[in-house]
Here is the input.
Amino acid sequence: MSLIRVLMIALLFIGCKKEQVNPTADNEIIVQYQQSASKKIIGKDWKVTFLSIKENSLCPPNSECIWQGRLVVDLEINQEEIELGLGDLTSNTETELVNEVVISGVTITFSEAHDYTETAKTKVVLSFD
Here is the structure.
């Protein structure tokens, strides 16, 4: 085989190589329903456990909804149980729904939800600032 053919084949394989992309930024943790995730952020070790979904009324993807809905989850962050919401957090309930909490001087925000139409696959993304 000529050198040119070898180089062309090598270039084809290099072009097909999949990059492994980190699904979160350095200041984020993504955790799946009823699982835990740990990461060192801002010089501190964080462990997040996704305990339960209290409410899931978010508008499904590729749908037109009158109300965007909301996702309310129970999490355990470094052994502290927290309830956070995403979406429309105005509520008639006795407790006010929030999107962020401060623990040890770090603001933790519920920033995204993935695969939320199927409970067992639901993942939440938390940002730490």
Summary: Confidence is low (pLDDT under 50) at residues 11-22.
